[in-house]
Amino acid sequence: MVRPKERHRCGKPGQGVGRNLGVSVKSLLPCCGYLGNHSSSTTVSFRSLLKPVLNLLNPLTLRFRDADTERAFASQLVERLRVQGRTAILVGTLIYLISNLLDGWLVPVEHQMTAWVLRLSALAYVSLVFLLTFRPAFKRFNQLPLGSTGLVVSGSLIGILYYLPLEATQYFYPCLILSTVYTYNFIGTRFIYALVINLIVLISYNLILGGLRDFPAGMLVDHNFFILSANLIGGCAGYLSEYQRRLLFVRETELDRERRHHLQRSLHDRLTGLPNRELLEDRIAQLVARARRGGATHVGLFVDLDGFKQINDRLGHDRGDTVLREVARRLQAAVRQTDTVSRLGGDEFFVLAHDIDSEDRAAQLAEKLLAAIGEPVADVPQAGRLGASIGICLFSREGRSPESPEQIIRAADQAMYQAKAAGKHRHAFARS
């Protein structure tokens, strides 16, 4: 069938291209402000990058100030914690067992059984935490159980140190330094938990060995220097590592948000927010596949507003855009939530409805759409009553039904022209 006129789908007056759709470059930049004030420059200073992120975090605990962001970060971290926690426990257990060889050399015979009890108790607790990493409960309880393994192991080492001769402690207390670094940098617990745990270990070490055991002051000063140094180095590394993880999370979140924003824009009409032709064709293809599998009948309705050009010419494009947005809203309200209303361009819309099994039901839907469109537009009373011509295309796996989205849209479009030729403000069916 020869088309009565060639329709320009993108540049028709009232489509909403221009100031109605203006989106500034700045509004597309990450909302936390990484580049918000630097859109004219390709370089961003470290200070300008650091400041907005620190505003999101508690500077000591590195916890996000926003509770929802913190929960999202913790949830995203769980699987990495599972793997890292298991690896750290296995490696740490191996080193802990190898250090047991020192017991036979350094621990007096009468205290070796006590040393074994301390070690086996620590290993039993660590094994329970290892099993926890395989349980669903690990999603809620992960940071403290992982971090507490460092506390338990350090506690057992302090207990063994208590029974060692003074001259043997210089060979054994480096194990405590290893445990300090392990808690900060290997087990995967948060910096603030590792800091609290290692401060507890340091205080316990001095109270038990300096107070109860009465280690010489010079030895305590020497040991404390290296333990504090391990805390300083391990703590700084742990702090920076967690900060980088959280910074990366913020960046990835913003990039994902921007990606979804661009995807939304690429598949939806900017003026009305309705699916565009690309998304419509994808949904039609899904219904065509469903029809082939199950034999259901679906319908596409091509809606073209009658007299819209005169509204644009008489009232201007701003009022025309208002009318188009109102028509989009009415079409959506007239169909089911699972149906699709799309704007093809200009004053052309397409309604895709599933499981419409007869021409009578399709005609009822078309009349419902015509009635909804025909109501006066309160915001533009000068527009008068609107009208539309609707072309209807039923498709299923039976007969000579159109088999592709393009064929369905074209058939409905041609039926719409038949409705216009018959006097407008009505519907017509596509005939194969």
Structural write-up:
With 432 residues, this protein is α+β, with helices and mostly antiparallel strands. It has 2 domains: 67-255, no CATH class; 277-429, 2-Layer Sandwich (Alpha-Beta Plaits). The chain is built from 14 helices and 5 strands. A 5-stranded mixed beta sheet has the order 2-3-1-4-5, sandwiched between helices. The radius of gyration is 35 Å and the shape is elongated. Mean pLDDT is 85; it is low at 1-46.
Low-confidence stretches: 1-46
Count of discrete domains: 2
The shape, in one word, is: elongated
What is the overall pLDDT average?
85
If you compute it from the alpha carbons, what radius of gyration comes out, rounded to the nearest whole angstrom?
35 Å
Cα separation of the termini:
12 Å
Which strand order does the major sheet show? 2-3-1-4-5
Oligomer: single chain
The ordered string of helix (H) and strand (E) elements is: HHHHHHHHHHEHHEEHEHE
**Major sheet attributes:** 5 strands, mixed
Q: What percent strand?
A: 5-15%
Structural class: alpha+beta
Please count the helical segments: 14
Helix content: 55-70%
The number of strands is 5
Write the layout of secondary structure elements.
Elements lengths: L45 H11 L10 H33 L1 H6 L5 H21 L10 H21 L5 H4 L1 H12 L5 H22 L4 H51 L9 H18 L3 E9 L1 H8 L1 H18 L5 E6 L2 E6 L5 H16 L12 E9 L9 H17 L5 E3 L3
Helix pairs in contact: 2-4, 4-5, 5-7, 5-8, 7-9, 8-9, 11-12, 12-13
Key phrases:
disordered N terminus, alpha+beta, 14 helices, Alpha-Beta Plaits, 2 domains, 432 residues
